[in-house]
Write a structure and sequence with these properties.
Length: about 190
């Protein structure tokens, strides 16, 4: 049995918009099948639930942009843009391909509008790094708010991407391929 569990909007109280199941990503084409679903390692799920609980009283909703990413998808992304500052070399493995990482942003729960984070998701620029001052003060506050919520819930962060969070000691989890779920998640 595989260690992944489905993450649904209803079950977790999140919005899900998987960027790689649409052409709205840096490859300009879907990488996952539209019905791929959102998955996370069972040991990471309680950390996501904790982050949701911390965000709710603040009037915020977490929006998941990526979670489990099969190793085949990591190769597709790497083959398109082999940039080790923003993508894990698939020979080493991505924390997404272990099911223990999330890419996400924050929404105003009342309006459903995304908070300004200063750059788009997957903007491969130094302005996407944590702690930069080249984005608006509002965006800096929003990034620090997301960082605080995720850190308080037990997540670690990646310094080059304001949107990426992973479990501490993520490398201890095995890499998982497209076949682990018993269905092809990749686009043909």
């Amino acid at each position: 049995m595989h260690p992944l569990i489905p993450v649904t909007a209803e079950g977790f109280g999140v919005e899900i918009l998987l960027a790689y199941a649409t052409p709205d990503n840096f490859t300009n084409r879907p990488v996952y099948a539209p019905a791929a679903g959102c998955w996370l390692h069972a040991q990471a799920a309680p950390l996501l639930k904790k982050a949701v609980e911390l965000a709710r009283p603040l009037g915020l909703t977490l929006r998941i942009l990526d979670a489990y990413r099969p190793t085949e998808a990591q190769w597709a992304l790497w083959n398109h843009t082999p940039d080790p500052e923003f993508l894990a070399d698939p020979r080493r493995g991505s924390t997404h391909s272990r099911g223990v990482a999330l890419d996400l942003d924050l929404l105003d729960a009342a309006t459903g509008v995304a908070l300004d984070m200063g750059t788009a998701f997957d903007a491969f620029t130094p302005l996407s790094h944590h702690g930069v001052t080249g984005v608006s003060v509002e965006a800096q506050r929003n990034r620090l708010l997301l960082l605080g919520l995720m850190n308080a819930a037990g997540w670690d962060f990646y310094g080059n991407e304001w949107w990426h969070y992973q479990m501490h000691d993520a490398a201890r989890f095995p890499l998982l391929s497209d076949t682990v779920l018993g269905a092809d998640r990749m686009m043909g």
